[in-house]
Design brief:
By secondary structure, this protein is of the alpha/beta class. It has a single domain, classed as Rossmann fold, CATH 3.40.50.1360. It contains eight helices and ten strands. The strands form two sheets. The chain has a seven-stranded parallel beta sheet, sandwiched between helices. A three-stranded antiparallel beta sheet has the order 4-8-7. Helix 8 links the parallel strand 9 and strand 10. Helix 1 packs across helix 2.
Length: 249
């Protein structure tokens, strides 16, 4: 676990944007494409804005998007144009502003029943896994966050999704500790851990305090490791942490 702590959230997101671009370039050199899975929620929005701005300002910084393969880590059970849709935010802040090919964007179809959406996404992920050489990871990079309740992706502490060891995507009942309280679909650990690198984005004191507690067994909660601690990428897990929230966060 490599942790980078910043007093200034702007500095953190700038460093994260540089890391994202470097990871993309390295993936292109190794494999000819860049497979990235991104989480929802408001936390990555600032990163998406930075990546979109850099792509627009510098053609050299936009080249990797033409070979990028973009996947959603999780989604709420709403249509893609809905205000609660993770894809809507991702598309508005990033995908619509960079030269990524539409056929390379793989979204979770939140407009379908969660079980059906999970089954459909499972087929997408397994199809992509079959296309990748066995010695290569499913993803070059997975971007994740954490919730104040200790969840990551839409894997909540004590949930069935946390215990899943076979399926790559599963439906999630309405969470009681997060809003909005509607069903979701999430990638599971077998998919998330099939990545060269995982990078967590953590903003705010409450979330930073959770990260500081990792490694002590979370004895106070009496539940062993929290879901973020179970992310074990094939190469490295990096934590970009700011105690302060971004100005629009």
């Amino acid at each position: 676990m490599n942790q980078y702590t910043f007093d200034n959230p702007k500095a953190m997101f700038n460093a994260l944007a540089e890391f994202f671009a470097e990871t993309a370039r390295n993936a292109l050199e190794k494999r000819g494409n860049f497979a990235v899975a991104v989480s929802g929620g408001g936390t990555p929005a600032t990163l998406f804005d930075l990546l979109a701005a850099e792509s627009a300002a510098n053609a050299a910084s936009a080249f990797f998007w033409e070979s990028a393969l973009v996947f959603q880590v999780d989604e709420r059970a709403v249509p893609p144009e809905h205000e609660w849709s993770n894809f809507r935010m991702l598309n508005e802040r990033l995908l619509s502003k960079v030269p990524v090919r539409p056929e390379n964007i793989h979204r979770i179809k939140g407009e379908h029943h969660p079980e059906r959406a999970a089954e459909e996404y499972e087929r997408v992920l397994r199809g992509f896994r079959a296309e990748r050489p066995k010695e290569e990871p499913l993803f070059d990079l997975v971007l994740l966050g954490i919730g104040e309740d200790g969840h990551t992706a839409s894997i909540f502490p004590g949930s069935a999704a946390e215990l899943e060891t076979a399926r790559l995507a599963v439906p999630v009942p309405p969470p009681t500790t997060a809003t909005p309280r509607i069903p979701r679909v999430t990638m599971t650990f077998p998919a998330l851990n099939d990545a060269e690198t995982a990078a967590f984005i953590v903003t705010g004191k409450k979330k930073a305090d959770i990260v500081r507690g990792f490694g002590d067994g979370n004895a106070a909660e009496g539940a062993g490791k929290l879901p973020p601690e179970k992310i074990e990428a094939l190469g490295d897990v990096k934590w970009f942490v700011s105690v302060r929230e971004p100005e629009d966060g």
